[in-house]
Every structure is written in C-alpha cells, then in structure tokens.
Amino acid sequence: MNLRQLRSLATILDRGSFVAAGERIGLSQAAISVQMRQLEATLGVDLFDRSSRPVALTAEGVRIGRLAGEVLDKIENIKLEASGAKISGSVSIGFIPTCVHNLLPRVLEALRQQFPELQVSVKSGLSGELSAAVVRRELDYALLTAPVVEIPELDITAIASEPYYVIAPAKARANTDAELLRSMPYIAFNKSTWVGQHIAARLQQRGIHLTESIEIDSLEAIENLVIDGFGVSVVPRRLHAILDPERLVQVPFGDPIDTRQLALVQHSSKPVSRFDTSIRKIFVDLPET
C-alpha cells in the first residue's frame, strides 16, 4: 500500500469513476485499475463491485476511501505547517440572495485576510439550487436556509438563527401579528424558495388565510414595498441587516417567535481539512462580526 494508491482511491470516491479520477490526477483508466487491484490484494478486501456497470465502490471501499482522504489531508497539513506555506488554489461558495448583501462582504474580507492567495468564486441562488450544486460537487460550500429534511450527501453546520417578523408601514396599528397581517394586502415571499414555503406553512398551521397581492423573491424589495405602503409581509430579520423602526412596524411572528436557520453545507464525503476548519470558523463567527 502506498500514497499513490490511496490518492487514487480517494479521488475515485470524490469524482465518482475511474475515468474522472484519472483525469483529475493525470493517470490512465488502466493505470488506476491496476493500482486498485494492488490495493485490494494488499488489504484483502473488495473495494469495488465489478459486477456492476460502471464499476462501483463497495461499502468497505467508501469507508476506506474516506479514511484515505483523511490520511492524505493530514499529510498535506503536515507539509504546510512545516513549510509555512500559504493555502492557495480556488474555492467555490454559494450564497442565497438574502445573505449576499450583508454577509458576503464579511466572508470575502475574512478569506482575504487568512488566505490572500486563494481565488474565490461565488454563486448566488436559491437554497434548493445551491444544495443540489454541493451534492453534485459543483460548489465546495454553500450558505443557505437549513433544509427541513435530511440530505445524506450534505454535512451541515449551523450558523445562525434569524427570527421572523411581520412588517408593516409605520402608520399601521394592530394588537397582534395576525391582526397586522390582515390589516393590509399581503406581500408574499416566493413560495418556490424554502423560506417562502416555511412562511406559507406556518400561516396555514395558524389558520391565517391571506390574499396575496404580490409574490417576490427579494427581501430588500419586500421591505421597500412595505415602507412605500403597498402592504404587509413576513420576513426573517437577516443577520447584520438593520430595519428602520421609524419606517416600519415590526411585530414578532408567532409565540414563541418563529425562526429560520442559516447553515453552511459541504459534501459529506469530503474529508475535513485544516482549510475546512478555517472556512467553518469564518462562517460560524458571522453572527459576532
């Protein structure tokens, strides 16, 4: 057993096939196949189910592939620590639109300070789109509304809890959040988003039936429309966002107040490296920055 074999196995796990792994590390499919047969002979286990087409990793192969990735990452960390080298390369991060304005600059600044040679690409999209992109390994990380159902391919780190508020123009008056919602036309957050679906479900559970005048997928746009008197809405109070109390009435939604959870996700098969730990810390520290 050698590091080249372990690297090939870990890359097969990450990329999904011999061909893709070979392209990633610069070896032919035949060379990868020879390495894997040698590794199986050394370990005395079947790492692949060769009766399937294409060849697939066995459960033991997945487990050992993850361990191989962890070993390789530890070796790389040792090299970095010994040489004092800075992490370079690239990283791709997804952000839901409601977090771009307030949180993206903080993340980019922290990355620039800690990893000045790192190239960062950013994609904005809805939570469902971004989570699927992480599952397909098109994104390394994504900051999104935490999924309400388990997605086995995702490793989820809780970042912050954002309370929901009913917002209305400053002139509006009501004793409860339900009364405030019924006092004017309702501006709904797009129900194709996880946030919009959550709000709609909570309204239905509470028996608050509203006629929607507008449906939109921008919190900033909703807030501006409410300020201009077009109606009322339910929105999460975004991390580091400031709503002007002189221009908006804000009443907690629900008792206890309902919340949305922000989370950082990455693929669950990715071994945790020193870089991953640093990335997570940057996001976990967002509520305090």
Short account of what is shown:
By secondary structure, the chain is an alpha/beta fold. Helices cover 44% and strands 23% of the residues.
Spell out the blueprint of helices and strands:
Layout: H1 3-15, H2 18-25, H3 29-43, E1 48-49, E2 56-57, H4 59-83, E3 89-95, H5 97-114, E4 118-124, H6 127-135, E5 141-145, E6 154-169, H7 177-182, E7 186-189, H8 194-205, E8 212-216, H9 219-227, E9 233-236, E10 248-252, E11 259-267, H10 274-284
Parallel strand pairs: 3-4, 3-5, 7-8
Antiparallel strand pairs: 1-2, 5-11, 6-9, 6-10, 6-11
Helix pairs in contact: 1-2, 1-3, 1-4, 2-3
Structural summary, described in words:
44% of the residues lie in helices and 23% in strands. The longest helix is centred in the N-terminal third of the chain and has 25 residues, at 59-83. It is built from 10 helices and 11 strands.
Instruction: Using the coordinates shown, work out and report the CATH topology of the largest domain.
Output: D-Maltodextrin-Binding Protein, domain 2
> How many extended strands?
11
What average pLDDT do the residues reach?
Answer: 90
Biggest β-sheet, characterized? 7 strands, mixed
Distance between the termini: 46 Å
- Secondary-structure element pattern, one letter each: HHHEEHEHEHEEHEHEHEEEH
- Quickly name the level 1 CATH class of the largest domain: Alpha Beta
Low-pLDDT segments, ≥5 res? none
Count the domains. Answer: 3
